[in-house]
Design goal:
Number of domains: 1
Number of strands: 4
Distance between the termini: 24 Å
Number of helices: 1
Strand order of the largest sheet: 1-4
Structural class: alpha+beta
Strand content: 25-35%
Order of helices and strands: EEEHE
């Protein structure tokens, strides 16, 4: 399984969401995407 995840989500950032998902489904591979070009937001 592979999960596609954005860095910015409504009400939650993607990094925090990743931690929550990995607690429940630790073996799932995740690809995090973003359209941000500002290194401070990545």
């Amino acid at each position: 399984d592979v999960m596609l995840l954005d860095v910015q989500l409504p009400g939650l950032d993607g990094i925090t969401a990743l931690g929550k998902f990995k607690e429940v489904i630790p073996d799932t591979r995740v690809v995090i995407l973003t359209v941000f070009d500002d290194a401070d937001k990545i």
